[in-house]
Design a protein that fits this description.
heterodimer, A: about 300 residues, ABC transporter involved in vitamin B12 uptake, BtuC, two-stranded antiparallel ribbon, 2 strands, B: about 375 residues, mainly alpha, two-stranded antiparallel sheet
Chain lengths: ~300, ~375
């Protein structure tokens, strides 16, 4: 039974990070209907910037984490400005393919740095002994990571529900023409959506880097696992992203804990989200909380 | 007015049937036949070596695969980020026969045309399966479905003992009427096989686009609701498109397996999928001749990038892996730049050049 609770705990830890990564993805989709294929690379970029600031420049991690958030914020904003702004009005399919190109470019840029081939891990800044309770243990880094994740998710929800910019972003996602007519600058909202997505991706990257170490393949895989999460939750629902993130984390941990090693199976935690994705696409394509558009073709 | 069938200066079509012709003038037909003959004859005239032929063979295989990708992404307007997985399905069909029956099994070495066809059909089956969500969904979701198929494929190959966990599975030498195809004539032999299949597939796709189904595809891409109202079935059309793309990819995969005489997972990863997409975009989405320009251009680019990486790699510290970095960088830049500045791809340049020569000495 302890094993079960241990799996639940680590599922929630992993799942909350998925939720945070999926959040940025949903932000972009919600405002501009673009699937950002390069999201994993944004996560990786955020993680590597945090590491470079912390270890190479020696800035304390509390500060460097926020600096990296800021850097990624402006980085993704300029990415939107340079590559995607001029594609407004083009068919969505070519915008999505531009993000595929961006994914490739960012891959190449990361391979140019030492991060592409080597593994790094953050220096410990929290107590090393894990917190143990009734046989279930959790490291301090994980605990702090989960707390930061939920704080950020809360902040983002507040931002969308209450702040003027958030409301204008929701307005744009609902109807671009109408929001233009009441004086919202749609391109600026797109830029902001990308920037906030970059910010949340960097936060996710920093937390993943601290909990599991920095490895480009792992971070990249995180970016692709975002797809099952957002499909399960519904592409345009923030609540869905959070719930589905945690469900996906639990599924992965349970699959890894109970299926692997039995019946000749291995690495099921990696593949199960995608199988679930295909099944959901067939039977409940709008996910748990997605808006049902009557546009089935 | 009956037009001059040798030197047409404009459109004189009086029926739709005339407009659907493959070759508008006799000159076009003649030039194309001459080009085909050249393509078949040049290896006999010029001296070639194996390295060189391998590059050419690779380009031709990529052309077959991109032809399939162009049907699904260019003509049906559905992004497929898992095309390499479909190619891999074809290759692993051959590999699993080799795995079960041994790599010198007679069906594998003697009946290889049947093997290639079989791989095509297996690929088509998987394509249709992945395309199934098309009955309920629009293109965005299908892109994710193809991506997840790519991941499931990679996992299956990497973790299953049957597929040698992604390590190379060998395939024996094939036989021709003259006996076993030996080491020296291997690449030349496959050049002709691939070329013949490519020409057949090219004509097949060209003819397909002239049929009801081809027009259906384009109608569904441009406006699926209007297509629905006109009595077409958009979902079914998309599934067919995926199946067709899967077929071409499967054939390409089987040829890849036979050409390299082995199958390993590293040729069918997500990176390869993006390479195929880059080929289709650079060539020109939704154009037939784009499927031939794209692979040639991208493979040439790849060779140049490798050369540059080799030269520059000596000057840089060892921790920076220039060879792995430059490839995605170049592909990504090519995709983005083409989409931003020339969305119609190289096929558009070809169109401009052609119309220039057609109208010469007049400007328009």
């Amino acid at each position: 039974m302890t094993y079960f609770f241990q799996l639940v705990l680590s599922g929630i830890v992993v799942g909350s990070i998925y939720a945070l990564s999926a959040l940025g993805f949903v932000l972009i989709y919600k405002s501009s209907r673009v699937l950002n294929i390069a999201h994993g690379q944004l996560i990786a970029t955020g993680a590597f910037i945090t590491y470079a600031l912390t270890v190479w420049l020696g800035i304390p991690i509390y500060i460097s984490f926020f600096i990296s958030l800021l850097i990624t914020f402006f980085l993704t904003m300029s990415v939107e400005r340079i590559f995607l702004r001029r594609l407004i009005g083009e068919p969505i399919i070519s915008v999505i393919m531009v993000t595929i190109g961006l994914m490739s470019i960012l891959d190449g840029l990361i391979y140019l740095t030492p991060f592409g081939s080597e593994n790094f891990s953050f220096p410990l800044f929290l107590p090393k002994e894990p917190i143990s309770m009734a046989g279930v243990s959790m490291s301090w880094t994980q605990l702090v990571g989960v707390i930061i994740t939920f704080a950020l998710i809360g902040a983002f929800s507040w931002f969308f529900k209450k702040s003027t910019i958030g409301i204008s972003m929701r307005a744009v996602s609902d109807d671009q023409l109408a929001s233009m007519s009441i004086g919202i600058s749609v391109p600026r909202v797109f830029g902001l959506a990308w920037a906030t997505a970059g910010l949340s991706a960097a936060a996710a990257g920093g937390i993943i880097g601290n909990t599991t170490g920095l490895n480009f393949d792992t971070l990249h895989a995180f970016g692709i696992t975002v797809f099952p999460v957002v499909i399960l939750g519904g592409l345009d629902s923030i609540l869905g992203a959070v719930v589905a993130g945690i469900i996906m984390g639990l599924i992965q941990q349970f699959a890894g804990g109970y299926l692997d090693g039995n019946w000749g199976l291995n690495g099921t935690g990696v593949v199960l989200p995608y199988i679930i994705l295909l099944i959901i696409l067939l039977f409940k394509p709008h996910g748990l909380f997605g808006i049902h558009e009557i546009e089935r073709v | 007015m009956s037009a001059n069938r040798w030197l047409a200066t404009g459109n004189y079509f009086t029926t739709y049937k005339e407009e659907q012709r493959i070759f508008f003038t006799h000159t076009d037909r003649l030039l194309f036949s001459f080009f085909l003959v050249c393509v078949f004859v040049w290896p006999l005239i010029f001296e070639t070596n194996n390295t060189y032929m391998l590059v050419v063979d690779n380009i031709l295989i990529a052309m077959i695969a991109v032809l399939g990708l162009n049907i699904v992404t260019g003509f049906a307007g559905l992004i497929s980020i898992g095309h390499a997985a479909f190619v891999g399905v074809g290759a692993y069909t051959v590999a699993s026969v080799s795995r079960v029956m041994g790599n010198d099994y007679i069906f594998l070495t003697h009946a290889w045309p049947l093997m290639i066809l079989l791989s095509g059909f297996v690929g088509a089956g998987f394509g249709a399966m992945v395309g199934l969500p098309a009955f309920r969904l629009k293109h965005l979701y299908l892109a994710i479905a193809t991506l997840s198929f790519q991941m499931i494929f990679q996992w299956t190959i990497n973790f299953m003992e049957f597929f040698n966990q992604g390590q190379t599975i060998f395939i024996g030498r094939v036989f021709w009427f003259t006996g076993e195809v030996g080491r020296n004539e291997h690449y030349m032999f496959w050049y002709y096989v691939i070329l013949i299949i490519l020409v057949l597939m090219g004509f097949m796709v060209r003819n397909l686009l002239r049929t009801r189904f081809g027009r259906c595809l384009i109608a569904v891409r441009d406006n699926d609701r209007a297509a629905d109202a006109m009595g077409m079935h958009p979902g079914l059309t998309k599934v067919y498109a995926f199946a067709l793309a899967g077929f071409l990819a499967g054939v390409a995969g089987a040829l890849h397996a036979y050409l390299y005489r082995g199958v390993g997972v590293e040729s069918f990863t997500l990176k390869a999928s993006i390479t195929y997409l880059a080929m289709a975009i650079v060539g020109g989405l939704g154009t037939l001749n784009g499927s031939f320009w794209g692979p040639a251009a991208i493979q040439m680019l790849e060779l140049q990038v490798e050369k540059i990486a080799e030269h520059a790699g000596d000057m840089l510290p060892a921790s920076i892996n220039l060879a792995t970095a430059l490839r995605p960088l170049a592909f990504g830049l090519v995709i983005v730049l083409f989409l931003m500045f020339e969305p119609r791809g190289i096929a558009n340049w070809w169109r401009i050049v052609r119309s220039y020569f057609k109208l010469w000495p007049f400007r328009y």
